[in-house]
Design brief:
heterodimer, A: Butyryl-CoA Dehydrogenase, subunit A, domain 2, 3 domains, 4-stranded antiparallel sheet, 51% helix, B: 400 residues, alpha+beta, Butyryl-CoA Dehydrogenase, subunit A, domain 3, 12 helices, 8 strands
């Protein structure tokens, strides 16, 4: 069970202080209000790189620190608290994990140093429809002399407008919904034939649609085995799911803290509203849900670090359970704040909007509930 | 952690556990049998554990314990389970080992500890608790059983209810009003009295699930010794708050399982149709089972996390007991409701040959489990504790 080491506690405290000081929700508001900023601040990203966060999962030989997923999750939780916009999750966790899980030594040596120093931004491009269906891949990669040609589209690609490279899941064999026949390719964002379009999502963050028309890549762009990306992709997605769950935990925890603070200060009917039992009991239920959500997230992060045999089960548990809590918490954040919670001037709306995007990312509750039942054999 | 200790425990258990008891359910009052061989073996086992100090292993040796750490006590529990047995003494002692004893270690005088603790730790003296009254349930502080002193000691009059095991106990720890003029929480004391005396009468209570260990207990000029107060006069409310923390902890530190039935999804696959790929055909029930099993895992992971944090000295375990009590209740009650739904008509039997033992047990457990959100501080009282003591929300504006 996750008892933090001294180093982890230190990194958590450092991240917490840094986020509040350098990348608070006010910074996110400024980014939202100025579309020319491109969704994230380069200087904020550079600070993260300077603190070593982009290299937490990479080996020391490539400039990383190899500190593991629990450490990374602690940082993501702090970023989630302030809705800090950055490619850290999409590139430094998902991108790096993809290269670590599937890349050959040559591919790792070629890509990891750029990912660690922040110059390369690599993001996963998987989903093609309106929901997460990892087996539903229609985008094709066809073998040609010396490489492959990719044709098709992707959507809901996180940090897709700033990415320098995409980790693209392509169909190389079988029917559109076969588990077999999917392959992973690393494709440069400036490849001829690749177009990207920004999606104006409700959370004002960077999501993109990709259109690939006869995009030619070298044979060395194939990551892992041809046709057999399934197992690697499952492992990669589970890491992404747990990472998003960690961010969601932070978002929900901040929403809880804001709500609790309001309960202690807002007066109506001559009393602080937190003295009303109907509200006190709701706060108690939300706090209990938060404790349980934290247990699921920390257990899942620890399981990845331990390379345990129940990572898939814990990943679905964490994503589903935190999703349930964040969903309820983001609604209560608005409801308990009342009218002020409905105004754009107050931050509550940011948390509600971001919550739904995170809930949908890498599988919503229904997806993970079904997967959990399947994993348990019913 | 001493694997040496674990080895010595395992060896002692192997040498001392009577073969006749292996795999036998030791029950609340001993094995449910009239077989003299088993009953004799049970008495041997009790006395060996008591002599070793393992009835209450974390208590000091001078009071009948063994002076061990919580971690060592867990090693013993696990070793006993591995050997197909358990420690019956906490059950034999009623509320003694789990609640009255730990509280007495903190609040008792030297004389009280020497007099009472060894009896609990050996399982020879059973204790009950006289707390709730017909008009003082969740609002325990409004209790009206009163005690006053005369030349010979304390005189107690009033009625208690939900006194678990009162008809089989030798001693009772009772909350009584000793200052009728003080504010309600300030005039209460914790008094210890013998149950086998003319002024005490008990009547068992039959519950919705059938027979129960609960009783109504009547005090009519019942007597207690001069030195029968645990804690200071009129300070019974602090004593009981601490005692109830021990109760919540003893109720919540174990995972939610049942000795009688398989996990719900396994039972479901026995009773219900499945699709070709082994999924339950009823998609709605399947989703609710998955939600329940995830809630159960989250609850168990939270116990594990809080215990790990406590070992690291990071958290006061009792502060989280209310959270765990309510989540344990949620999980257990939902489990019972799901089991009944899965069993259909077969989950509606009271007794008789038309039902399997598992089905009948599921029904009784469903009914009995409704008490979980009522006893030990109701579901709503736990939420009050969380909102005030943990979250720091102000006292509710309504009276109470």
């Amino acid at each position: 069970m996750a008892v933090l080491t001294e180093e982890q506690s230190l990194i958590k405290a450092q991240a917490s202080a840094w986020v509040i000081d350098k990348a608070p929700v006010a910074s996110f508001r400024a980014l939202r209000d100025d579309p020319t900023q491109g969704g994230f601040s380069r200087s904020t990203w550079q600070s993260m790189v300077d603190m070593g966060w982009s290299g937490i999962l990479a080996p020391e030989a490539c400039g990383g620190s190899d500190l593991g997923y629990l450490t990374f999750g602690l940082i993501l939780e702090q970023l989630g608290r302030q809705l800090t916009a950055s490619p850290l999750l999409a590139s430094s966790l998902v991108g790096v994990s993809g290269i670590m899980l599937a890349g050959s030594p040559e591919q790792q040596a070629a890509l990891l140093p750029g990912l660690v120093d922040g110059s390369t931004l690599l993001t996963l491009a998987l989903d093609e429809g309106a929901r997460h269906q990892p087996e539903q891949v229609a985008l094709t990669a066809t073998a040609v002399d010396g490489g492959y040609v990719l044709n098709g589209g992707k959507t809901f690609v996180a940090e897709g407008m700033v990415a320098t490279h995409f980790l693209i899941v392509a169909r190389t064999d079988g029917a559109t919904d076969d588990a077999h026949g999917r392959s992973l390719f690393v494709v440069a964002a400036d490849s001829p034939g690749l177009q990207r379009h920004a999606l104006a999502t409700v959370d004002s963050r960077d999501y993109a649609q990709l259109v690939l028309g006869d995009v030619k890549v070298d044979a060395s762009a194939l990551l892992g085995e041809l046709h057999n990306a399934g197992t690697t992709l499952d492992a990669l997605l589970d890491r992404a799911r747990v990472a998003v769950a960690a961010e969601m935990l932070g978002t929900a925890a901040q929403a809880f803290d804001m709500t609790l603070d309001y309960l202690k200060t807002r007066e109506q009917f001559g009393s602080v509203i937190g003295s009303f039992q109907a509200l006190g009991h709701r706060a108690a239920a939300l706090f209990s849900a938060q404790e349980q959500a934290r247990s699921c997230v920390e257990a899942a992060l620890q399981a990845i670090d331990d390379n345990a045999d129940n990572i898939a089960e814990l990943a679905s548990l964490a994503k589903c359970h935190v999703g349930k809590f964040l969903h309820a918490m983001s609604n209560e954040l608005i409801q308990i704040h009342g009218g002020i919670g409905m105004t754009d001037e107050f931050d509550a709306g940011f948390y509600l909007k971001r919550a739904r995007v995170l809930e949908a990312s890498y599988g919503n509750r229904a997806f993970h509930r079904d997967r959990y039942a399947t994993l348990l054999g019913f | 952690m001493a694997s040496e200790f674990e080895a010595s425990v395992t060896e002692w258990v192997a040498d001392n556990l009577p073969q006749a008891l292996v795999g036998v359910n030791l029950g609340m009052y001993g094995p449910d049998t009239s077989d003299p061989a088993v009953l004799d073996a049970f008495e041997v086992w009790r006395s060996r554990l008591a002599d070793k100090g393992w009835g209450a292993p974390t208590w000091p040796a001078e009071y009948g314990g063994a002076g061990l750490t919580d971690a060592q006590a867990k090693v013993i529990t696990k070793a006993l389970a591995r050997a197909g047995s358990s420690n019956p003494i906490p059950y034999l002692a009623g509320m003694g080992v789990t609640m009255v004893g730990p509280t007495m270690l903190e609040y008792g005088t030297e004389e009280q500890k020497a007099e009472h603790l060894p009896g609990m730790a050996s399982g020879k003296v059973r204790w009950c608790l006289g707390l709730s009254e017909p008009n003082a349930g969740s609002d325990l502080a409004s209790l009206s059983t009163r005690a006053h002193k005369d030349d010979a000691g304390w005189v107690i009059n009033g009625q208690k209810t939900w006194t678990s095991g009162a008809d089989k106990s030798q001693w009772c720890g009772a909350l009584v009003r000793t200052d009728p003029d003080a504010a309600k929480r300030d005039g209460i004391s914790f008094l210890m009295l013998r149950m086998d005396q003319p002024g005490v009468e008990t009547r068992p209570i039959s519950l919705i699930a059938g027979e129960s260990p609960f009783c109504e207990t009547f005090f009519t000029d019942a007597r207690a010794e001069n030195d029968a107060l645990l804690g200071a006069l009129n300070d019974g409310w602090s004593v009981i708050k601490r005692l109830l923390q021990h109760e919540r902890q003893s109720q919540t530190n174990t995972p939610v399982t049942s000795a009688y039935t398989d996990p719900v999804h396994v039972v479901a696959k026995r009773y219900l149709q499945t699709t070709a790929d082994g999924k339950l055909a009823d998609a709605d029930l399947r989703a609710r089972l998955a939600d329940h099993l995830m809630d159960k895992s989250a609850h168990e992971l939270t116990i594990a996390r809080i215990m790990a944090d406590a070992r690291g000295g990071n958290v006061e375990v009792s502060a989280t007991a209310s959270i765990l009590k309510n989540s344990a209740t949620d999980v257990a009650q939902m489990r019972s409701e799901l089991l009944l739904e899965i069993m259909g008509y077969q989950g509606l039997g009271w007794e008789g040959a038309g039902y399997t033992a598992e089905e009948l047990h599921a029904v009784r457990e469903w009914l009995g489990g409704k008490a979980m959100s009522i006893y030990g501080g109701s579901y709503e009282v736990q939420k009050n504790i969380i909102s005030k003591n943990i979250l720091g929300l102000p006292e509710t504006t309504q009276k109470g």
